[in-house]
């Protein structure tokens, strides 16, 4: 029996965040469990997750980080800056790793906003097939399979002209990459009565803007008796020590860092506060309504669509939301349990927790 080989090219950093790596890890773990050989290629950017990936049991090859090169790239657009090198340099360095592999990879999976068709064309001769994970629909790809797990208007038309006609496109929340723990917790999901007794607070793996602290101030300002807050600081959060010192000693606050039971914490909450991203779909899977903010421009369209769909409440760009605005939104939801209950029901209808299985089927077919 031939063992399939798959290579992931993905990065994390303080600027990029951790979401791209985390969703790739979800898919990688499922593939590994099916007997697939997995390799990660990541650049050692400030705030990277290379050691974390290794500790999850995966082989990882590290691309070097050069501060001088990164400085030169700062004049480029946002996503080009994320690479910290030119696309040509990145493709050349990645190609060296691929050519040194004993077996030609069956798939190269790319999850990076800074890479496009030119990068893919350079590496096409080194692999059998290419898969792209994207959310932007703003550049051309030379791929065989594309995944965009988000909810947008005119979703079926978003990538028309950006990918080859023969490419398979997996589009929408039915393909959301979620860990098995979310499906497990979903099977025990209880119907929401709309009463908010417990809040789950998480702004992703990095939260360099410390929106977690802002949200905590808004929550505490309401002085709601018997309200419990589960505060989670991600693995790359630069404000972890400050958050722990300031809120970790409060009796009604449970402080966590880099938790392994995220689904369990979400499942017992009545409302979530956080950013838009993969966590949006984790919350939906568990029927957890949420107040959300966007921390990147590319999240705004999806957040507005989600708000119109009724399973979350979008407060705006995080930089424009203060503790008073958040507190006002919370106060409204506390007084409208029927609205919270309706949001929970709609959230649960969006994601069923089996997206990873569907994506795997597309890869292994």
Pick out its properties.
Rossmann fold, 15 helices, alpha/beta, seven-stranded parallel beta sheet, 39% helix, 365 residues, six-stranded parallel beta sheet, 2 domains
CATH architecture of the largest domain: 3-Layer(aba) Sandwich
Major beta-sheet overview:
7 strands, parallel
Number of helices: 15
Domain unit count: 2
**What is the tally of beta strands?**
13
Uncertain ranges:
none
Which whole number gives the mean pLDDT? 94
The radius of gyration computed from the alpha-carbon positions, rounded to a whole number of angstroms, is 20 Å
Strand content is 15-25%
Outline of the structure:
This protein is an alpha/beta fold and 365 residues long.
Outline the structure in words.
The chain is built from 15 helices and 13 strands. With 365 residues, the chain is α/β, with parallel strands linked by helices. The protein folds into two domains: 5-171, Rossmann fold, CATH 3.40.50.11190; 181-350, Rossmann fold (3-Layer(aba) Sandwich), CATH 3.40.50. A seven-stranded parallel β-sheet has the order 3-2-1-4-5-6-7, sandwiched between helices. Helix 5 runs parallel beside helix 6 and helix 11 crosses helix 14. The mean pLDDT is 94.
Question: Secondary-structure blueprint of this entry?
Answer:
Blueprint: E1 5-10, H1 19-33, E2 37-43, H2 50-55, E3 59-63, H3 67-73, H4 78-83, H5 87-99, E4 107-111, H6 117-123, E5 129-133, E6 145-148, E7 168-171, H7 180-186, E8 198-202, H8 211-222, E9 228-233, H9 240-247, E10 253-257, H10 262-267, E11 271-275, H11 278-285, E12 290-294, H12 300-309, E13 312-317, H13 323-334, H14 337-350, H15 355-364
Parallel strand pairs: 1-2, 1-4, 2-3, 4-5, 5-6, 6-7, 8-9, 8-11, 9-10, 11-12, 12-13
């Amino acid at each position: 029996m031939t063992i399939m080989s798959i290579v992931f090219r993905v990065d994390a950093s303080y600027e990029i965040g951790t979401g791209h790596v985390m969703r790739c890890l979800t898919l990688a773990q499922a593939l590994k469990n099916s007997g697939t050989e997995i390799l990660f290629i990541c650049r050692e950017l400030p705030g990277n997750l290379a050691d974390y990936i290794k500790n999850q049991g995966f082989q990882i090859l590290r691309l070097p980080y050069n501060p001088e090169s990164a400085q030169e790239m700062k004049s480029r657009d946002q996503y080009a800056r994320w690479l910290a090198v030119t696309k040509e340099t990145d493709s050349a360095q990645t190609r060296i790793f691929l050519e040194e592999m004993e077996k030609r990879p069956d798939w190269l999976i790319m999850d990076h906003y800074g890479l496009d068709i030119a990068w893919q064309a350079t590496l096409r001769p080194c692999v059998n097939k290419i898969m792209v994970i994207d959310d932007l629909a703003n550049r051309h790809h030379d791929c065989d399979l594309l995944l965009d797990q988000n909810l947008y208007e005119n979703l079926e038309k978003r990538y028309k002209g950006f990918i080859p006609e023969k490419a398979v496109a997996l589009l929408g929340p039915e393909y959301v990459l979620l860990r098995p723990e979310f499906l497990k917790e979903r099977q025990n999901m209880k119907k929401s009565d709309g009463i908010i007794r417990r809040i789950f607070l998480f702004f992703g793996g990095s939260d360099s803007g410390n929106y977690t602290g802002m949200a905590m101030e808004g929550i505490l300002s309401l002085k709601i008796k018997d309200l419990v807050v589960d505060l989670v600081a991600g693995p790359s959060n630069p404000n972890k020590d400050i958050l722990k010192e300031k809120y970790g000693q409060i009796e009604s606050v449970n402080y966590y860092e880099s938790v392994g039971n995220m689904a369990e914490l979400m499942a017992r909450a009545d409302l979530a506060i956080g950013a838009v991203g993969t966590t949006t779909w984790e919350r939906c899977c568990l029927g957890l309504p949420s107040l959300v903010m966007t921390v990147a421009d590319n999240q705004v369209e999806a957040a507005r669509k989600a708000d119109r769909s009724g399973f979350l409440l979008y407060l705006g760009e995080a930089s424009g939301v203060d503790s008073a605005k958040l507190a006002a939104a919370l106060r409204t939801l506390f007084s409208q349990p029927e609205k919270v209950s309706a949001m929970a029901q709609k959230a649960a209808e969006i994601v069923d927790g089996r997206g990873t299985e569907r994506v795997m089927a597309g890869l292994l077919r």
